[in-house]
Amino acid sequence: MTSRHLVPGLGRARAYAVRLSRAVAPFVFLSPLLAAGCAVGPDYRPPQQPVPAEWANGSPATTGALALSRWWQRLDDPLLDTLVEKAVQGNLDVASAKAKIREARASYRQAGGALLPTLSGSGSYTRSKSASGTTSSLVGQSDVANQFQLGFDASWELDLFGANRRAVEAAGYGLAATEEDLRDTLLTLVGDVAAYYVEARGYQARLDLARRTAAAQRETADLTRVKFDTGALAATDAASAEGQAASTEAQIQALESSYAEAVHRLGILLGREPGALTQVLAGAGTIPKAPTALPAGIPADILSARPDVRAAERRLAQYTAKIGEAEAARYPSVSLTGSVTTTAAQAGNLAKGSAIGWSFGPTLNVPLFQGGQLEAAVDVAVAQRDQYAITLRSTVLTALEDVENALVALAKERARNERLAVSATAYRRAADLALALYKVGNTSFLEVLEAQRSQYSAEDSLVQSDAAIASDYIALNKALGGGWDGAIDADPPAATPSNIALASGSAMPTTPVSATAPATKTEGGR
């Protein structure tokens, strides 16, 4: 049953509201004309950000778009690719960033609502009893009356000086900045997943080397103990062999601890418990090999590629718009208001035989004296805008520093790796030669142990360098702004372990990220 049947005459009362809206209509259509071009405050213009023409370390600058799209796939590791996709789906920081986007969208809609008129309705029923004022009232008689009242109120603030439009503008810039924050979160996430994966594979390689070396050293120590028991070897040689084997075995414990920490961190990045990837990464794997081609581009590229730079620029625009919003509060405001009420003793008479009243007209509000608050609010907005201008410049400089550091680190590590490879080969040959000379009695056993210790140290340094090259390559892509370039749907709630479950073996199923709801997605990889 409709409200029209519940309250007889309600439909006729609505007719009076329609008459009111028709009376106000000329003001409604006139208000945009009055407000056009009257938004106070500065109009935003993106500031010029001076950047060098080329990289300071001498890396060649390349023209054209940076090859940052899914850069981690160039490491040629299918398991890493799957881990990245799972992290994008399940990471809790990403889920939080999506929630912030939904909040910003709601704030944007809320700000836009201030540009539209408001309409509210009210209704009341009163039953009252009053003394009649006659002699009969002295013996308890009284008059009882019912009163039904229905009313509609409408108002619309004419945005003559653009306060509401500036608020909508600021909210729109804020929404754009929040979307860039999500991109920045994804950039950090992808880089961290790749970095911890390389770190884990590096510890695995070092553990394999340490275990093989420790096994060989333990075998040597056992032999020296036998020779010492038979008097064929000095006590110092036996003690040195035992000490070297124990030292290498002790390093294994430290490496296993560091490996476990890297695996645990990967689990957390995927939104899972720390041990979720223990079995996944237990299988054989090698340190990803970074490609030799570097996606350096030119310094100006980071202004469009880095989401943190884009977010800082959007926030500068947001707080520039807030200056106009604060400035408009210092000017008069005009509102159109109207109301219609109908009162009757019976509900069925609300629009027939009832008392009907209506009113409409403009309302002017002029701020005459506010104790300097409105002027101070403008100064606050200007100071905030200046802060975000400085933040933007600082973000650009930090981005340039990140790229320069990554380029230098990668170039120097590659050169270091070449020398470490030569060193490992030389020490391996020296250890073999020392052992051969010892067998024929031309050198001491301590020289053999020293040569083997140097061989192990050189080979371990080479493995660490291999992992460092991959890590520096990851850092370079992060510094250049390479992150997730797929569609991101911010509408679903935070991911739960049930929809990001991993396989228990060394392989993991790949589930594509949803690309639905084009109206609510952001695009990256610019």
Automatic annotation (TrEMBL):
It is a lipid-anchor. GO terms for molecular function: efflux transmembrane transporter activity. InterPro entries: MdtP/NodT-like, OMP_efflux. SUPFAM superfamilies: Outer membrane efflux proteins (OEP). It comes from the Bacteria. Residues 238-265 form a coiled coil. Residues 498-526 are annotated as: Disordered. Residues 509-526 have a biased composition (Low complexity). This is NodT family efflux transporter outer membrane factor (OMF) lipoprotein. Keywords: Coiled coil, Lipoprotein, Membrane, Palmitate, Transmembrane, Transmembrane beta strand. It is found in: Cell membrane.
